[in-house]
């Protein structure tokens, strides 16, 4: 636990200010930064995570919680973070949820195939860099086998490579169109623009930022 009594975000990589490869880590950290929420970082490990995945957090009372969406919801419910979607109308909330689902429940798996199947060695040596070489080979093999089983069960690995490329491009093209429309709605105004075209960010913006940053920095 942090000596300062702050929330600790375990991000699966070095506890620095640089982005890690996981879009869910960056999503959570962006959400905290939107609210100027002070926290500490640590590397952590899936083996120590309450749900067996990154990110997870530890609260000042030493309790832990996993899953970026559940962590954000927990902090919102306790008024530690503002509810970004509170001002939205029902149709806007549905659109926000649809954007998040498109990224987290579709695009994530296409990128997973790209990382763990097409660029396995790069992925292994990146995410397991802190593990000595002999053990890295064994743990990497176990991680890849689990990823392949998950991707096949989910359906991504039942598709041809060109089909996955087409579907992945369709998602990014759709997101690009939304962002272009949101930017145009600003009519030359300075400052950030948000995916739903509003004056303030919503949950979808944190998720989208996580996926954009993750795609740009991940060597795999």
What can you tell me about this protein's structure?
- The chain has 220 residues and is an alpha+beta fold.
- It folds into two domains: 7-77, 3-Layer(aba) Sandwich (Glutaredoxin); 90-215, Glutathione S-transferase Yfyf (Class Pi), Chain A, domain 2 (Up-down Bundle).
- The chain is 55% helix and 6% strand.
- It contains seven helices and four strands; from the N terminus they run βαβββαααααα.
- The chain has helices spanning 23-34, 68-77, 90-118, 120-127, 133-154, 161-185, 203-217, and strands spanning 7-10, 39-42, 56-58, 64-66.
- Strands 2-1-3-4 form a four-stranded mixed β-sheet, covered by helices on one side.
- It comes from Emericellopsis atlantica.
- InterPro entries: FAX/IsoI-like, Glutathione_S-Trfase, Mito_Protein_Transport_Metaxin, Thioredoxin-like_fold, Thioredoxin-like_sf.
- Residues 23-119 form the Thioredoxin-like fold domain.
- Pfam families: GST_N_4.
- Belongs to the FAX family. Belongs to the GST superfamily.
Q: How would you summarize the topology of this molecule?
A:
Elements lengths: L6 E4 L12 H12 L4 E4 L13 E3 L5 E3 L1 H10 L12 H29 L1 H8 L5 H22 L6 H25 L17 H15 L3
Parallel strand pairs: 1-2
Antiparallel strand pairs: 1-3, 3-4
- How much of the sequence lies in strands comes to 5-15%
What portion of residues is helical?
Answer: 55-70%
Counting helices, strands and paired strands, the structural category is alpha+beta
User: In CATH, what is the class of the largest domain?
Assistant: Mainly Alpha
By DSSP, the count of extended strands is: 4
| Morphology | globular
Give the name of the CATH architecture of the largest domain.
Up-down Bundle
Domain Thioredoxin-like fold: 23-119
Protein name: Glutathione S-transferase
Family: Belongs to the FAX family.
Organism: Emericellopsis atlantica
């Amino acid at each position: 636990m942090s000596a300062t009594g702050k929330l600790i975000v375990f991000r699966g990589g070095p506890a620095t200010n640089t982005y890690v490869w996981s879009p869910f880590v960056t999503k959570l950290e962006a959400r905290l930064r939107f609210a100027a929420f002070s926290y500490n970082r640590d590397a952590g490990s899936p083996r120590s995570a309450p749900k067996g995945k990154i990110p997870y957090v530890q609260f000042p009372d030493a309790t832990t919680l996993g899953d970026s969406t559940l962590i954000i919801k927990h902090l919102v419910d306790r008024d530690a973070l503002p509810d970004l979607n509170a001002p939205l109308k029902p149709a806007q909330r549905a659109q926000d949820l649809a954007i998040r689902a498109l990224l987290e429940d579709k695009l994530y798996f296409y990128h997973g195939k790209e990382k763990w199947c097409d660029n396995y060695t790069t992925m292994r040596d990146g995410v397991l860099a802190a593990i000595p070489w002999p053990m890295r080979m064994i743990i990497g093999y176990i991680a890849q086998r689990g990823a392949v089983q998950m991707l096949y069960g989910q359906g991504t690995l039942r598709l041809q490579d060109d089909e996955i490329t087409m579907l992945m491009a369709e998602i990014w093209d759709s997101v690009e169109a939304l962002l272009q429309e949101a930017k145009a709605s600003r009519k030359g105004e300075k400052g950030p623009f948000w995916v739903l075209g509003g004056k303030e960010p919503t949950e979808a913006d944190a998720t989208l930022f996580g996926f954009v940053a993750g795609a740009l920095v991940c060597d795999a």
